[in-house]
Amino acid sequence: MVRVSEAIEDDHRKLETYYNIIVNSTDEDEQTRYQNQFTWELARHAVAEELVVFPAIEKYVPGGSAKTDDDRREHHSIREMLDVFQDLNASDPSFIPTITLLMEGLARHMRDEETNDLVRLEESVTSEESEKLAQSLNRTKMFVPSRAHPSDPDKPMYATAAGLLTAPLDHLQDIFRKWPEEDTNEPWME
Predict the structure, then answer these.
(1) 4-189 in CATH: which number?
(2) Cβ atoms within 10 Å, residue 154
(3) What residue segments make up the domains of the chain, in order of their start?
C-alpha cells in the first residue's frame, strides 16, 4: 500500500517532469499537450489535497490549522497563476516565463510540504491511516475539477460543492484537448 506522503510526492514528481518537458521542448504541439497534462495534474492535485490532506493535518498535527491556512493561501496563489497559464497559447511570448514563475512558487510549496507538512502528518498517523488518506486522495482526484478555478471557495464544504458543479464541464472540455501521445489513456478517461 502507498502512504499519503508517497502519493503526494508522486504527483509532485509528475509535475516536475511535465514542466521540464514543456520548457525544454521547441515543439509547440508537444508544449500544448504537456501544458494540458500539467494543468490537469496540478488542478486535481491541489483540490484533492485541500479536501483530504488539509483536514487530516488540522485533525492530527498540533498547530495544523495555522499551517493549512497558510497552505490554502499558497494554493490560491498557485491556482491564480495556473488560471493564466492554462489558457496561454504555446506560441505566446509569455508562455515559458509564466510556467517558470508558476513552477518557482510551486517548487517552494512542494519542498515545504515534503520536508515539513508530510513529515509531521506521517509522524502523527498510523501506517493504516496514512494508506487510507492516500486512497482517499486518489479517489477524490477523479471527481474534482481538472482546470484552475481560483474564484472557487477555499473552505472544504464549499469547495466540494463548487467542484461538483465545475468538474463535469472541465471533464467534458478535456475530451477535446490535446494530450501527450505516449499515454495510452487520455487523462480524462481516468
Answers:
(1) 1.20.120
(2) 16
(3) 4-189
Q: How many CB atoms lie within 10 A of CB 28?
A: 14
Which class for 115: exposed (0-12), middle (13-18), buried (19 or more C-beta within 10 A)?
exposed
H or E element that contains 38? helix 28-48
H or E element in which residue 139 lies: helix 127-140
The DSSP 8-state label assigned to residue 173 in this structure reads: H
Q: Which three cell numbers stand for residue 63?
A: 498547530
Q: Are 98 and 88 in contact (CB under 8 A)?
A: yes
From residue 175, give the alpha-carbon distance in Å to each of 8, 84, 109, 115, 165. Answer: 26, 21, 30, 36, 17
What is the gyration radius of the CA atoms in the chain, in angstroms? Answer: 16
Distance CA 76, CA 38 (A): 17
Single pTM value for the model: 0.86
Sequence-distant (≥ 6) Cβ neighbours of residue 67 within 8 angstroms: 57, 61, 116, 117
Residues 25-35: pLDDT tens digits? 999 999 999 99
Q: What is the DSSP letter of 189?
A: G
Query: What is the residue whose three cell numbers read 496561454?
Result: 88
* Residue 159 identity (one-letter amino acid): A
For 114, counting Cβ atoms within 10 Å of its Cβ (0-12 exposed, 13-18 middle, 19+ buried), the class is: middle
Mean pLDDT (the chain, rounded)? 88
